[in-house]
Design goal:
Elements lengths: L1 E6 L2 E3 L5 E9 L1 E12 L6 E7 L4 E3 L7 E5 L5 E6 L8 E11 L5 E5 L3 E5 L2
Parallel strand pairs: 2-11
Antiparallel strand pairs: 1-3, 3-8, 4-5, 4-9, 5-6, 7-8, 9-10, 9-11
Amino acid sequence: QVQLVESGGGLVQPGGSLRLSCAASGSILSINAMAWYRQAPGKQRELVATITSDGSTNYADSVKGRFTLSRGNAKNTVNLQMNSLKPEDTAVYYCNANIRSLYQDYPRTYWGQGTQVTVSS
């Protein structure tokens, strides 16, 4: 019984900023990694950014220097700070996490429901 809840999506003008948050809850023993994906209409889902248990981060070339993925102050949360947003960033953004549950002896991957980000004037 693990779930991911996303928040922070919405409409923003080009050049503006948004912060997406993802909170994992349930019977969690540990989180190995968390990531954000996005999918625009008519396009394949793409990996945006990842953060691993040691705090290491990686970013897609298209967002490098503009987006920052970090651990949140609340337990089992991450934040994706998105600056200098472009219309091409418009997509549904999905939180992804590899989690070991208290009631399983192996990790598995969970997905959030997705949150819409629209960059338009």
